[in-house]
Here is the input.
Amino acid sequence: LLTAISIERCLSVLCPIWCRSHRPKPLSGIISGLLWALSLLLNTLGYILCSLRPPARSCRLLLITIGSLDFLFCTPLMLLFSLTLFLRVKCSSQHFRTGRLFTIIMLTILFFLIFAVPLSVLILFDFLGYKFLYSPEIGFVLSCVNSSLNPVIYFLVGSYRDRRIKFTLRLAFQRAFED
Here is the structure.
């Protein structure tokens, strides 16, 4: 989903007229639904092949495929489009107003790269036969930290206007997503 969000956000900044006039309005919802369905399918297959049956070659092949798809396809695409967007917004002669949504996306991607990507790398290396001491545990802890940071990012970015943070969590989320 972060990859899809990065691509869509980058295209909306680089080609705003094309996005407004040619991009179908329900495209974001359709792509998100397809990504959720793909994730559900892959996780269901992983559960069936790796948990219900004794670990087999098909389980290993599926997990290597998921890890490769995540690490070799989605993450580089997300990095490319996020970096392009960041450079366009920060280095442009036109002064774009960097809103809360831009800040949320950039922080979420930064923390994803720091905390969630290592789990994918460690799982991929583990299934390729490279073993590291405590690697699954470290990867899962980092992934949990990433998941825990997202609500904090939303709260802090949403409360940026009022630095005293004297309002509710709901108002912070509302302000964060008002872009």
